[in-house]
Q: What sequence folds into this?
């Protein structure tokens, strides 16, 4: 058999035999004179052989490995090129898993032969495909770092269909990372029963793990189906579902209330997930037991959409405000009948949520106290009234000259490494800066008034060089003259100034 093979391909040179590889490669080179092609084959069985010929790549492609009969060799040059989208018949990779104090890590990689341009010898080079990380505190869950364009360009032809490499790699990495971390658990997730999540999709399983890593005080399966990120941080002393429900219901002790709360909870869990914001807000606003019970009975799918992470606190304040004008009974009617309308509930929920968004503007409650006129309590009427007050408020801001700032901004250090950071005191000052920098900063006056943004002017030796916009403590915009980008060294100093003045969460 072997003899037959060598007779057939007389110019095939048999090279050394090494360890099996995960992929078979074909690397095309020129001989010393540059006349002939050298085709160097690396078979996954470990066999290496090469062929010197005038033939082109197409003509030699069907060469078989003399030992294992494999005839699929990927062209290493074309593979490394990554310029075009391609479907490969076979491609395999290797994994490495590791963990340190802070995270679990998986890296997928492959090795590919390349010609060393100095020595003209062939080296195998490791190429990273993908790295996925899970922080042990759950804060950064499954951060994906793509290392290779291969993800987006290449597919694999498997089981009669082509699969995007990106999907295959991500799934493979997630699956192995998940299995690894279950075997190497931290204390926080030791209690997790794999049997209860076996039916979840892979990405759900990973979310599940991260959720409990992040909320390490919660150790019951059902919490995964509680949708209330914004409350969780404030409720870390409550560890069981029962305690959490007591917290959500404002520790109301009346038996009838508890019963309805649990019933509503069970309904919600049957429905999909429990969204506690409604129960949380209502329990803090409505005193009458029977009326509160009616609110607990609102259909879960509607309750879910009444309040969000961003609106539940203003909602609570707003309902307390409404109680100054309306009886509790009217407020309960508003939710149970006006919003929970069989045919109109979708539109009414949208209007209600829009109303809450308007209330998030700074100064809205003061404006309501001043301008609100009592309406018939319907979603439409309430929305229109809040919207009217909101317009009045923007008008007042448009007239207002002086900016007000929260203490955290007033207390920032002005001098930092040769720069001076100043807050504009008036609209007039901001408009002069905008003129100096030739940008549209003046348009931000409303946002500064509303305190959704804070602008700092960055000076050097008395000259305004840049302006930066902060939202919370995050720099969301940083601009030089004519909106030009800030010099990277200066930007570094600006970031350091920010870090030294604000704690970043
Ligand atoms: Zn072989």
A:
């Amino acid at each position: 058999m072997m003899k037959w093979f060598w007779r057939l391909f007389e110019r095939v040179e048999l090279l050394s035999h090494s360890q099996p590889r995960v992929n078979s490669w074909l690397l095309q080179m020129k001989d010393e004179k540059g006349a002939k092609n050298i085709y160097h084959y690396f078979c996954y069985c470990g066999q290496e052989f090469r062929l010197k010929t005038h033939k082109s790549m197409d003509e030699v492609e069907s060469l078989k490995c003399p030992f294992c009969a494999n005839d699929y060799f990927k062209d290493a040059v074309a593979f490394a090129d990554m310029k075009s989208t391609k479907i490969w018949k076979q491609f395999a990779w290797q994994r490495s898993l590791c963990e340190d104090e802070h995270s679990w890590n998986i890296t997928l990689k492959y090795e590919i032969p390349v010609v060393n341009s100095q020595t003209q010898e062939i080296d195998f080079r490791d190429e990273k495909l993908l790295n996925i990380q899970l922080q042990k505190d759950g804060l950064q869950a499954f951060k994906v770092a793509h290392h290779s364009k291969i993800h987006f360009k290449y597919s694999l032809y498997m089981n009669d269909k082509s699969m995007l490499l990106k999907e295959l790699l991500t799934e493979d990495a997630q699956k192995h990372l998940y299995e690894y971390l279950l075997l190497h658990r931290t204390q926080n997730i030791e209690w997790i029963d794999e049997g209860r999540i076996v039916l979840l999709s892979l990405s759900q399983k990973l979310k599940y793990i991260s959720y409990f890593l992040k909320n390490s005080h919660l150790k019951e399966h059902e919490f995964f189906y509680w949708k209330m990120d914004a409350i969780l941080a404030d409720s870390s002393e409550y560890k069981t579902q029962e305690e959490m429900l007591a917290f959500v219901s404002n520790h109301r002790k009346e038996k009838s209330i508890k019963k309805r709360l649990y019933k509503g909870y069970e309904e919600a869990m049957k429905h999909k997930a429990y969204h506690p914001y409604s129960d949380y807000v209502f329990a803090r606003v409505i005193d009458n037991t029977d009326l509160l019970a009616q609110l607990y009975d609102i259909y879960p799918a509607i309750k879910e959409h009444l309040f969000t992470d961003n609106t539940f606190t203003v909602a609570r304040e707003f309902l307390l405000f409404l109680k100054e004008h309306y009886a509790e009974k009217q407020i309960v009617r508003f939710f149970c009948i006006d919003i929970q309308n069989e045919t109109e509930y979708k539109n009414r929920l949208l209007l209600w949520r829009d109303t809450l968004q308007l209330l998030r503007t700074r100064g809205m409650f003061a404006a309501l106290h001043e301008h609100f006129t009592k309406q018939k309590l319907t979603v439409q009427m309430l929305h229109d009234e809040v919207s009217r007050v909101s317009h009045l408020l923007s008008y007042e801001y448009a007239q207002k000259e002086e900016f007000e700032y929260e203490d955290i901004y007033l207390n920032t250090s002005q001098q930092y490494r040769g720069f001076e950071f100043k807050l504009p005191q008036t609209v007039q000052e901001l408009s002069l800066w905008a003129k100096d920098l030739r940008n549209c900063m003046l348009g931000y006056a409303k946002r500064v008034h509303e305190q959704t943004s804070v602008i700092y002017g960055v000076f050097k030796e008395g000259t305004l060089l840049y302006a930066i916009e902060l939202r919370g403590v995050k720099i969301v915009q940083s601009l030089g003259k004519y909106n030009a980008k800030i010099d990277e060294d200066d930007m570094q100093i600006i970031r350091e100034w920010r870090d030294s003045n604000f704690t970043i969460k």
User: Anything to note?
Assistant: Residues 94-192 form one domain. Residues 43, 45, 47, 65, 67-68, 70 surround zinc ion (CB under 6 Å).
